[in-house]
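[recover] target loaded
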C-alpha cells in the first residue's frame, strides 16, 4: 500500500528542470546589486535566499531503498541552531512508483512519506523538516530516482514551530470506506498526540488515494464557512499529495471538504504554538486567471498580497497554495518576491492539461507583492492561508525615484519596484535583451526613457522570442498595469520583421490597456503582431518611427481596440507595416501629420484600416466599423499597389473624415468602404476570407456612395509629400 507524504509545507522556490542552476541562487538587491539580509524575530519563519542544496543529476540517481543524509544547518544562511528547515523535494523520472521520506538525522524513519511519485514523472512537494544530529536531514527513497533538494528558509529555536510526530491522524482506507462526494469531515488535532490545546495551526499533509473522478479537497478551521479555495487537486484514480498549514478552529478541530469521492489520508507533522508569530487565516482566493485571459508561456504576473485581505503591509512572507490548470504542455510555475531577479527554479511542476497544486512559503517583495512566472501557457490559482508579520526584508524606497538600468535583470526588477512618478532610465548605448520574458507589467505613472535624440539612436530593448502560439494568442513584451505610462526615446525591437505565415507566432511590442499613456520619440519595429496596441482612453502615440511590422494576418503599426476616446496618432513616420494604423471595429482614432513612406507593396494591405465589428461577432447583427475617425494633414507617399490607401470595413457609428492629406496616388479610389457580411460559403464575385466556418465577403464602395465617410480637400498626385 502506497504511503503518503508525512509533511509538506512548501519551499518558496523549488526546481528548475534542465536549466543547469546548481548551488546557491543569488538575487540582486539594492543599488549595488549586493545580497541583502534581514534580521527576523526569533519566533517565526526566516526566509533565506533560495539555494539548491542537492541535485543528483550531476551524477548517478539514488538507488532503490537507499538512505542519504545532508547537512542543512550551519551553512548558507541557516544557523546551526535551526529547529527546522523549509525545503522542496523533487523526484525526477523514477524507475518505478514509490515515495521519498524526509526526516531529522538521528531518529528512526517514520512510517510516512514526504513525496509520492509514479514512474517516469517529474514531481515536487514541499516539506518542513526537523533538523537532526549534526544539523542534518535524511531522505529515503523506495525506487531509484534522481532527487533535487532546495532550501528556502528555516525556523529558529523558540520560533513557535514544533515538529510533532509525524503521525497519521486519518486514513480512510482503514475504515474501508472513502470520503463521499460533497462530504465534510472534522478531526480533533489540538490537545492530543503531542499537539497542545493552545496550538494556533498545524502543518499537515493531505493525500487523495484512488479518487472516483477529478476533484479537489479543501482544508479549513472548524467553525467558519468553508472557503472557496482548494488545498489539494486530484484526477481520477491517482494518488496525489499536497501539504498545508491549517488554522485550528473550535474545539481544537480542523475540517476538510471533498468534492469527489476519494480515500483521504491526513498526516500531522508539526504545529505552530501560541508563541509563534505565524498568523493563520481562513484561506482566501487572491487570484484565479480563469476569470480573464490565460497567461501565456514565459509571462510573469505580480500581485499585491501585503496590505490586502487582512495581511498587513509589513508582512515578510505568506503561506500560499498554488494550482495550475489546463496547461498547454508540461512546465513549471515559479513564485518569488517582487523586485528581485528572476531565478531559474520552480515551486510547481506539472504535465500538460492536468490540475496540479503545491504549497509555498513566499517572501514578500517590493510594494507588498509576489510574482508568478509560468513556463507554459496555463491558468493558475493562488490561495493565501496565512502570513508572518514584519519587519519585511526590504529597505523602504523613497519615491519618486530614478532607476538607472542597463541589464535585463535590472530592468525587470525596476518594473516590479517602481511606482507612479518613478523613471526607469536606460543609457542610450545600452542593449537590454528580454528574450524569455513576456507580458512585463509596467506600473501606471512610470516613465521609461532611452535617450533617443538627434544623432543618437537610443537604448535598444529587444526580444528574440519565437515560440508557437495560436493566431488568437498574441502576447506583448510590455503591458501597462495602470494609467499614465510614458515610453520615451527607446528602440523596441521584436523577433521578426518578415512577412511570414500568421500561424507561426504572434508577438507584440507594447499593450496600452490603461488611460493617459504616451509613446513618443521611439522606434518600434519587427513585431509580427503589432508594435503598439491600444485599448485605454486618452492615449497618444507621437513622434516615433514605426516600421517593418508586417506579419500576414496581423502586422499592425498601431492597433486600436474598443476605446471610448480617440487615440491620437501624430507626427510619426510609418514604413512597411501591413496596416500602419488599424482598428478593431469598436474604437476611434485621430491620425494627423504623419508620414507614410513609399516602400515595396508586398505584404501591405490598407495603410489605414478599420475592421468591421462583425469580423468578431461572425454574424450580420451589426455592420459597424469603428465610431469616429479623423484622418487629416498626413503625407501618404506610399502608392498602395493593388490596394487602396484607406479601407473602412463597414459603416462608422459616427463618422470617418478624411481631409487635407497629401497623397502620392492619383486614383480617387484611394479611400474605400468595404462592408463585411457573414456567409456560410464564399460569394461569387466578391472578395472573401474565411474565419472558422464563416466566410466574410464584401463589395467595395467609393466616393459619394460611401456611408458615414467624408473625403474632402485632399491633394492627389504628390509623391514627395507636402510637408
Amino acid at each position: 500500500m502506497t504511503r503518503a507524504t508525512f509533511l509538506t509545507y512548501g519551499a518558496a522556490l523549488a526546481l528548475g528542470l534542465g536549466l543547469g542552476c546548481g548551488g546557491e541562487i543569488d538575487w540582486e538587491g539594492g543599488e549595488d546589486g549586493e545580497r541583502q539580509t534581514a534580521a527576523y524575530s526569533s519566533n517565526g519563519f526566516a526566509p533565506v535566499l533560495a539555494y539548491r542544496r542537492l541535485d543528483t543529476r550531476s551524477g548517478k540517481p539514488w538507488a532503490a531503498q537507499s538512505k542519504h543524509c545532508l547537512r542543512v544547518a550551519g551553512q548558507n544562511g541557516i544557523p546551526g541552531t535551526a529547529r527546522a528547515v523549509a525545503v522542496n523535494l523533487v523526484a525526477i523520472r523514477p524507475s518505478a512508483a514509490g515515495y521519498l521520506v524526509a526526516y531529522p538525522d538521528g531518529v528512526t524513519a517514520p512510517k510516512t512519506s514526504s513525496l509520492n511519485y509514479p514512474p517516469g514523472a517529474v514531481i515536487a512537494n514541499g516539506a518542513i523538516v526537523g533538523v537532526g544530529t549534526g544539523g542534518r536531514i535524511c531522505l529515503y527513497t523506495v525506487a531509484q530516482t534522481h532527487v533535487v533538494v532546495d532550501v528556502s528558509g528555516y525556523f529558529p529555536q523558540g520560533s513557535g514551530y514544533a515538529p510533532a510526530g509525524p503521525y497519521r491522524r486519518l486514513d480512510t482506507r482503514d475504515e474501508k470506506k472513502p470520503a463521499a462526494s460533497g462530504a465534510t469531515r472534522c478531526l480533533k488535532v489540538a490537545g492530543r498526540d503531542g499537539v497542545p490545546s493552545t496550538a494556533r495551526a498545524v502543518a499537515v499533509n493531505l493525500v487523495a488515494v484512488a479518487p472516483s473522478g477529478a476533484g479537489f479537497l479543501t482544508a479549513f478551521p472548524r467553525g467558519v464557512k468553508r472557503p472557496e479555495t482548494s488545498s489539494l487537486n486530484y484526477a481520477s484514480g491517482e494518488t496525489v499529495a499536497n501539504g498545508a498549514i491549517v488554522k485550528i478552529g473550535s474545539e481544537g478541530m480542523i475540517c476538510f471538504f471533498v468534492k469527489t469521492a476519494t480515500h483521504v489520508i491526513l498526516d500531522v507533522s508539526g504545529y505552530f504554538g501560541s508563541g509563534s508569530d505565524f498568523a493563520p487565516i481562513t484561506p482566501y482566493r487572491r487570484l484565479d486567471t480563469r476569470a480573464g485571459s490565460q497567461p501565456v508561456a514565459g509571462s510573469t504576473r505580480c500581485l499585491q498580497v501585503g496590505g490586502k485581505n487582512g495581511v498587513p503591509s509589513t508582512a515578510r512572507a505568506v503561506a500560499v497554495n498554488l494550482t495550475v490548470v489546463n496547461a498547454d504542455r508540461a512546465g513549471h510555475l515559479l513564485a518569488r518576491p517582487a523586485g528581485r531577479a528572476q531565478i531559474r527554479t520552480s515551486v510547481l511542476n506539472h504535465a500538460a492539461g492536468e490540475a496540479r497544486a503545491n504549497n509555498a512559503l513566499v517572501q514578500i517583495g517590493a510594494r507588498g507583492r509576489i510574482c508568478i512566472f509560468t513556463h507554459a501557457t496555463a491558468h493558475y490559482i493562488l490561495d493565501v492561508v496565512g502570513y508572518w508579520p514584519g519587519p519585511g526584508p526590504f529597505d523602504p524606497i523613497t519615491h519618486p525615484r530614478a532607476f538607472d538600468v542597463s541589464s535585463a535583470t535590472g530592468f525587470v526588477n525596476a518594473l516590479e519596484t517602481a511606482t507612479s512618478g518613478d523613471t526607469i532610465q536606460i543609457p542610450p548605448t545600452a542593449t537590454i535583451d528580454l528574450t524569455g520574458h513576456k507580458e512585463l507589467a509596467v506600473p501606471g505613472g512610470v516613465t521609461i526613457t532611452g535617450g533617443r535624440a538627434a544623432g543618437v539612436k537610443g537604448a535598444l530593448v529587444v526580444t528574440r522570442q519565437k515560440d508557437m502560439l495560436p493566431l488568437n494568442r498574441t502576447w506583448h513584451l510590455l503591458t501597462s498595469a495602470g494609467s499614465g505610462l510614458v515610453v520615451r526615446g527607446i528602440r523596441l525591437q521584436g523577433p521578426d520583421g518578415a512577412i511570414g505565415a500568421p500561424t507561426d507566432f504572434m508577438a507584440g511590442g507594447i499593450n496600452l490597456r490603461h488611460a493617459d499613456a504616451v509613446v513618443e520619440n521611439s522606434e518600434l519595429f519587427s513585431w509580427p503582431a503589432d508594435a503598439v496596441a491600444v485599448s485605454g482612453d486618452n492615449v497618444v502615440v507621437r513622434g516615433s518611427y514605426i516600421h517593418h511590422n508586417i506579419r500576414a494576418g496581423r502586422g499592425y503599426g498601431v492597433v486600436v481596440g474598443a476605446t471610448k476616446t480617440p487615440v491620437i496618432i501624430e507626427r510619426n513616420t510609418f514604413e512597411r507595416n501591413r496596416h500602419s494604423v488599424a482598428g478593431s471595429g469598436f474604437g476611434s482614432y485621430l491620425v494627423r501629420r504623419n508620414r507614410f513612406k513609399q516602400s515595396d507593396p508586398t505584404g501591405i494591405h490598407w495603410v489605414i484600416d478599420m475592421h468591421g465589428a462583425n469580423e468578431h461577432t461572425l454574424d450580420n447583427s451589426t455592420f459597424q466599423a469603428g465610431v469616429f475617425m479623423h484622418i487629416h494633414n498626413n503625407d501618404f507617399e506610399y502608392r498602395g499597389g493593388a490596394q487602396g490607401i484607406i479601407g473602412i470595413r463597414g459603416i462608422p457609428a459616427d463618422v470617418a473624415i478624411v481631409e487635407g492629406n497629401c497623397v502620392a496616388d492619383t486614383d480617387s479610389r484611394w479611400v474605400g468602404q468595404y462592408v463585411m457580411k457573414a456567409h456560410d460559403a464564399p460569394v461569387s464575385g466578391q472578395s472573401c476570407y474565411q474565419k472558422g466556418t464563416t466566410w466574410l465577403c464584401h463589395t467595395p464602395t467609393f466616393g459619394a456612395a460611401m456611408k458615414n465617410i467624408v473625403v474632402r480637400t485632399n491633394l492627389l498626385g504628390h509623391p514627395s509629400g507636402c510637408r
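[recover] notes: The first strand starts at residue 46 and ends at 55.
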